[in-house]
């Protein structure tokens, strides 16, 4: 398990482990609360992530659950310390809603990021210029500046991780062919495509594949989505992007998440190979400059 997953993922891992320990012990929340002379609501808030847990309270829970292994205790205390650390994305609170920033936190600590988009380049591989053009006229200049800054910082923070996530992106050929920014600067889109190709060649943990027009209709036409997977036993997270910010993050619905995981595999089967996709992206960059 990595130690640089960020506070949201470390908090979720800790909560998952504490619930597992309680159930393995065969105890209800009420029984544990009585044993510790806590209010039931306190344990509910701890297990639900509403309250950060102190070192003393965590040690008390581990005593009730008979966790005697020093290595296991230290691992859980380490998760608790990580969960209490301030998140870098806190500086964006007030500019973005809490639900979106929670998703940012989960993505920051993921081991695998699988994302499909049929209309634009995925945010984590966008250039600043491309990102700015996309939001021009859609939001205020201040929101636009914060949005571009957040996307670039997300990229930088992932790159700084000791164990960066494996990132798999599938895009429709329309994303590659659309000359975004042509009215502002014709070089924006070719530079964006070169950035994708250069990033793929420089980072073996990054894969970008293209679904060609020849495939016709495919499962991705229903909208962009992301599936996040984690180390340490944490359940996957599904993020669905809608219009006008109507985005939804889904956790705990194993059946729905599995459906999108399967959809991603189907889209992979329909996409060009990694090498073919890279060649198409580079050729498209040249075509746009012709």
UniProtKB/TrEMBL annotation:
InterPro entries: Cro/C1-type_HTH, DUF5753, Lambda_DNA-bd_dom_sf
Pfam families tied to this protein: DUF5753 (PF19054), HTH_31 (PF13560)
Entry's transmembrane regions: none
Source species, domain of life: Bacteria
Alphabetical list of Gene3D superfamilies matching this protein: lambda repressor-like DNA-binding domains
Ranges where the HTH cro/C1-type domain occurs: 18-72
SUPFAM superfamilies: lambda repressor-like DNA-binding domains (SSF47413)
A Gene Ontology molecular function term of the record: DNA binding
Protein name: XRE family transcriptional regulator
Organism, scientific name: Actinomadura rubrisoli
């Amino acid at each position: 398990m990595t130690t640089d997953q960020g506070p949201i993922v470390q908090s979720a891992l800790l909560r998952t482990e504490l619930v597992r320990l309680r159930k393995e012990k065969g105890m209800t929340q009420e029984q544990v609360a009585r044993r510790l002379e806590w209010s039931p609501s306190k344990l509910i808030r701890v297990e639900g992530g509403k309250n950060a847990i102190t070192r003393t309270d965590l040690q008390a829970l581990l005593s009730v659950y008979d966790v005697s292994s020093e290595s296991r205790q230290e691992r859980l205390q380490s998760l608790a310390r990580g969960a209490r650390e301030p998140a870098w994305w806190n500086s964006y609170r007030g500019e973005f809603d809490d639900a979106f920033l929670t998703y940012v936190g989960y993505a920051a600590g993921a081991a695998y990021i699988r994302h499909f988009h049929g209309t634009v380049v995925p945010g984590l591989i966008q250039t600043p210029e491309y990102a700015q053009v996309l939001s021009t006229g859609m939001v205020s200049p201040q929101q636009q500046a914060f949005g571009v800054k957040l996307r670039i910082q997300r990229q930088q923070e992932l790159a700084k991780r000791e164990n960066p996530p494996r990132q798999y992106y599938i895009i429709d050929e329309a994303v590659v062919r659309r000359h975004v920014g042509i009215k502002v600067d014709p070089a924006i889109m070719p530079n964006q495509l070169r950035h994708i190709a250069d990033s793929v060649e420089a980072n073996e943990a990054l894969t970008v594949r293209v679904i060609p027009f020849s495939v016709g209709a495919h499962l991705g036409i229903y909208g962009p989505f992301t599936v996040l997977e984690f180390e340490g036993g944490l359940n996957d997270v599904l993020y669905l992007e809608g219009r006008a910010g109507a985005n939804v993050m889904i956790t705990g619905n194993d059946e729905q998440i599995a459906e999108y995981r399967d959809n991603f595999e189907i889209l992979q089967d329909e996409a060009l190979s990694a090498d073919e996709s890279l060649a198409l992206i580079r050729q498209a960059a040249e075509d746009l400059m012709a």
